[in-house]
Structure formats: structure tokens, C-alpha cells
Amino acid sequence: MKDVYILAIESSCDETSMAIVKNGNECIHLTVLTQMDTHANFGGVVPEIASRMHTENVTMVLEETLKKANMTMDQIDAVAVTYSPGLMGSLIVGVECAKTIAYVCNKPLIAVNHIAGHIYANNLEDNNIVFPSLGLVVSGGHTEIIYLEDDYNFKILGSTLDDAIGEAYDKVARVLDLKYPGGPNIEKLAKEGQSTYKLPIPMNDESLNLSFSGLKSSIINLVHNETQRGNEINRADLACSFQTIAVDELTRKVELAIKKYNPKNMIVAGGVSANTYLREEIAKVCDKYNINLSIPKMLYCTDNAAMIGAAAYPLFKRGEFASFDLNGISTGNIFKF
Ligand code: KG4
Ligand code: ZN
Strand locations in 94-242, DSSP E? Predict the structure, then answer.
């Protein structure tokens, strides 16, 4: 079969990213222009600023991606774009850009769900998702345990009832005076501390749902109360205590899902899968039950367009293209968030 080259666009949050992906598994070139430093000044992503910056940067990112890949649009078979979930204004910039390129260059358009993108990041770099698999999706907006039956045939087994794990990392980071995005900074600080603070265990139950807002609030209250009393907080210990409890809860729920569904394969996806402690703890559980574990390379864990190109490939093969009003989305719309 002829090789398939997909130009993929991701702009759902604060990264303007484009990539050219060959056959759904080989990233020819990935460009990620992050707005992180700008949003760090505000302690989190400001949606209005994010969409304005995407608008300023899309053309440059497109030029850079084609140039570095040493390719022209003539060699591209389809244009793929993240259509949901994400910040509305940010998504619109990527979607409009994809529609324009597809229209002008006469290429089919593929609409990709962002979470599907994180999942299919596991197909990049000679990896291959083996179905059926158990999936853990952990990002700034999502925390889900999913059963992956087949390509785009996914069932959500459990999800967070309140905050996403990445959101909890970011909010706890803010109260510890760490810069946005908080995840990597908490991870770094936690390495210098120990899990000494007694914090509430999120959900002491046997369901596959999760909850992080109680843990987050207890830390915010603790810092507030201790500061009021003039007591010093051991920030490294608190970061470590938070991370240990949050990750241990995720791991405990994954183990419950493993016992219930007996999978042979496990994938971890989403920005928080860049976390080394999480990677290590999930790996231990997988070892215990003799399960193959797949986690994307760090570069493909946080938001990037290569994962969108990877997720678009099965849709390309099936001929599932979106109409220019994006009404033609069927399988691409795998989650109803
Ligand atoms: O997938 P992603 O890039 O964007 C969303 O789709 O949300 O995930 C971003 C989230 C942020 O909350 C960030 O703090 C978190 O992933 N994150 C981490 C790490 N790297 C990124 N959380 C914990 N440890 C990390 N090393
Ligand atoms: Zn994401």
C-alpha cells in the first residue's frame, strides 16, 4: 500500500503544534510552539490570550513544519485537526486553519478527538497499541480508566468525579508558589522531600472512579492555616506527600481495573504520563500481573500534533472524513464530554 502522509494540527490549549506523520506511526517532523511562559505570568492558561497567540502563530508553525520535513502540500494525503475537547477559542483557530488548508489544497479533512490523540500517541515510534488494552488517560482536563476493545471502540470504566489529576497538580503547585504548569515542578520538588504530611486518601472505595478535589482542598487549607499561625511549611515534603497520595490512588484504581478486566496490555496517555513516579508505580503493577505496558516517549506525552496524526490514520484508512462544517464526524467522536 502507498505510504500515507498526514499533516496534523493541534491547538486545543496552549500549544500551537503541527506535525507530518507517515502511516500513523512515524513522525517526519513535529513543531510545538508553547505559550507556557506567557500563561505562567497568570498562574494558568488564559483562554483569550491562548486563542490570540494561536492566530498569530499558525502560519509560521505550518511553514516551519513543511520546511523541516522537507515536504510540500502536494505530498500530503490528508489534513487532520483536533476538534474537541479543549478551549473553544483555541480549537477554532486550529479547525479553521485545517479547513482552509484542506480546501485550498484539495485534501480530505479528518476530525480527531484530543483524548483519542493521547491514546494513539502510543502508536508512534514503532510502538503499536495491541487490542484489547486497558488505558489510563491522565491530563490537565481528563482522568479516565478506559477499556480499549479495538480501534475507536473504547469504553470508559471510570473517571474523575471532580478535578482532573493534572488540574490538581497545577492548583497544588500554585499554593506552593510553583510556576505553571505545576506538574513537572511538583515532580521536581517532590524529589527533594518525603511523604510526611497526613492528607486524606481521595476515595477509599472499590469503584473505578477517582476524585482529587478533596486532596487539593486539604492542601490549600493546610497551607493557609499554617501560614496564618506563622508556621513554616516544608514545601518539598508537602509536594511529595501530595504526589504520593494522588499517584498511589491512581495506581490502586488501575490495579482494581486489572483484576476486574484481566487485560494483557496497558497504555498510559496524557500530559501527566510524563511523570516518572506515575510511570514507575504503574510499571510495578503491570509487572505484578504480567501485563505489557506502553507509555509514549516524553515528547509525545504532553500536547503535540504527532499524536493527532497517529489518531487520524485509522480514520483515514476507513475513509472517515469530516465535511467542512465538521458535521461528518462519526467515529472520531468517541467520547461525549
Ligand atoms: O495533556 P496535556 O499536555 O494537556 C491537556 O490536554 O490537559 O496535560 C497537561 C497537564 C498539566 O496539568 C501539567 O501540569 C501535567 O499535564 N503534567 C505533569 C507532568 N508534565 C505535565 N503532571 C505531573 N508530572 C509531570 N511530569
Ligand atoms: Zn492533552
Answer: 109-113, 133-138, 143-150, 153-159
